[in-house]
């Protein structure tokens, strides 16, 4: 459920007409609904109530949407953060997320990033290789620190999602093979500065079937039993994120958080550990949309081309993953057309939809790309020397620009020309 609704013939974000935001800020612009974020957090938390020992740690996956206002909403709700870089860590801390609720994941942590995380006293490092453990041990020892760690294990489970967001197969770059984990933990116990407290797993993103998750979690449960038998004090299991959301309203709904929570409780009964989760898309995807204006409509060989001012560098998912986003007119007339929706970037890949049935639109009309709150603005770039898209947060009848659109001059001012190239 989201809080983007039609009122008096025009789409609103909560109590704010999207036309007012477009007129004030310009387009394209991302718009987030605070009420939707808050609801999704509440539904996910309720679904996991009673799972594991104590209160589960819900660590928002910052990569999904690192905007400071979005992270502040997570902090206000008491969530932690799953980060994969020093930049994400610093963003989370600046937004008020407690360092002890931060989990540092990712395959390529540098010594510098490790030192930054250690200096902030984060809750846990999710290690992705034995060489990484050796490096972290050295950095922690140099700083006189001890830090809790978990190995991310690769269970060799096919998530059944897009190949580019699948992370749990043996051929993926993430984690250590689950079959070799007992030996890896044995070697880990000899490394100074590290305290092995957990096991982590994450098999992919946008999963629409619980079976792969259940298979992966069952393997983790077996591993925890084996590790404890070997003398390791495992007190936390990080089960990652990945639960899918509805992008295309014509397709069956993915499993609900309640379905997911029931499966987690069933599989983890008897584990005797605190559980951690890393939701990202589930919290913010349907809490955001990309507002865009039609530049012009031109004839096409089979269907008209609807050219909008948003581009692939504003919303990369359709170009990168062939991802489907619902596209609607802000003031629909009831008429429908079949059209190709594209952006202005000089690439054939700058295409949002081909032969899509949609609301009829004309030059100057506003359209919205739905379910764009996750992996939208965070993946944006400046290709074709286009300014980064701004972001707006709405709460009730209030709204604020939470990241302004930088002037085009900033693209030039950020660069320097060496003296030997100046005329």
UniProtKB/TrEMBL annotation:
Q: Which UniProt keywords apply?
A: Amino-acid biosynthesis, Decarboxylase, Lyase, Lysine biosynthesis, Pyridoxal phosphate
Q: Where does substrate bind?
A: 281, 317, 321, 347, 375
Q: Which organism is it from?
A: Sphingomonas colocasiae
| Keyword Lyase (UniProt) | yes
Name of the featured protein: Diaminopimelate decarboxylase
Q: Which domain of life is it from?
A: Bacteria
Q: Where does pyridoxal 5'-phosphate bind?
A: 242, 278-281, 375
Q: Which Pfam families match?
A: Orn_Arg_deC_N, Orn_DAP_Arg_deC
Q: What is its EC number?
A: 4.1.1.20
What are the residue boundaries of the Orn/DAP/Arg decarboxylase 2 N-terminal domain, all occurrences included?
Answer: 35-285
Signal peptide location: none
Family per UniProt? Belongs to the Orn/Lys/Arg decarboxylase class-II family. LysA subfamily.
Q: Which residues form the Orn/DAP/Arg decarboxylase 2 C-terminal domain?
A: 30-373
Cite the record's note on assembly: Homodimer.
Its UniProt entry gives the catalysed reaction(s) as:
meso-2,6-diaminopimelate + H(+) = L-lysine + CO2
Entry GO MF terms: diaminopimelate decarboxylase activity
């Amino acid at each position: 459920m989201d809080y983007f609704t039609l009122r008096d013939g025009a789409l609103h974000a909560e109590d704010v007409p999207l036309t007012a935001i477009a007129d004030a800020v310009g387009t394209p612009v991302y718009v987030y609904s605070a009420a939707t974020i808050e609801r999704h957090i509440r539904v996910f938390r309720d679904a996991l109530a009673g799972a594991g020992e104590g209160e589960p740690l819900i660590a928002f996956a910052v990569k999904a949407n690192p905007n400071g206002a979005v992270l502040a909403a997570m902090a206000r709700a008491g969530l932690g953060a799953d980060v994969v870089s020093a930049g994400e860590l610093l963003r989370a801390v600046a937004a008020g997320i407690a360092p002890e609720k931060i989990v540092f994941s990712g395959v390529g942590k540098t010594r510098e990033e490790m030192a930054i995380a250690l200096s902030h006293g984060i809750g846990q490092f999710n290690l992705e290789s034995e060489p990484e453990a050796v490096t972290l041990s050295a950095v922690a020892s140099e700083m006189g620190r001890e830090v809790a760690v978990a190995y991310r294990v690769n269970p060799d489970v096919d998530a059944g999602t897009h190949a580019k967001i699948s992370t749990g197969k043996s051929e993926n770059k993430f984690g250590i093979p689950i079959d070799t984990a007992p030996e890896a933990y044995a070697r880990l116990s000899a490394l100074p500065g590290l305290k092995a407290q957990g096991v982590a797993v994450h098999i992919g993103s946008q999963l629409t079937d619980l079976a792969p998750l259940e298979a992966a979690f069952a393997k983790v449960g077996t591993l925890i039993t084996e590790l404890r038998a070997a003398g390791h004090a495992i007190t936390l299991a990080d089960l990652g994120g990945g639960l899918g959301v509805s992008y295309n309203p014509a397709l069956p709904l993915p499993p609900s958080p309640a379905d997911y929570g029931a499966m987690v409780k069933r599989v983890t009964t008897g584990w005797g550990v605190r559980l951690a989760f890393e939701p990202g898309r589930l919290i913010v995807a349907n809490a955001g949309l990309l507002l865009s204006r039609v530049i012009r409509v031109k004839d096409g060989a089979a269907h008209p081309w609807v050219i909008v001012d948003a581009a692939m560098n504003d919303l990369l998912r359709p170009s990168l993953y062939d991802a489907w986003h619902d596209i609607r007119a802000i003031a629909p007339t009831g008429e429908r057309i079949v059209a190709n929706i594209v952006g202005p970037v000089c690439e054939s890949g700058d295409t949002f939809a081909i032969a899509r049935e949609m609301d009829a639109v004309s030059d100057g009309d506003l359209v919205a790309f739905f379910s764009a709150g996750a992996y939208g603005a965070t993946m944006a770039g400046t290709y074709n020397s286009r300014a980064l898209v701004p972001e707006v947060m709405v709460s009730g009848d209030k709204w604020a620009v939470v990241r302004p659109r930088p002037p085009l001059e900033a693209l030039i001012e950020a660069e320097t020309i060496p003296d030997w190239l100046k005329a």
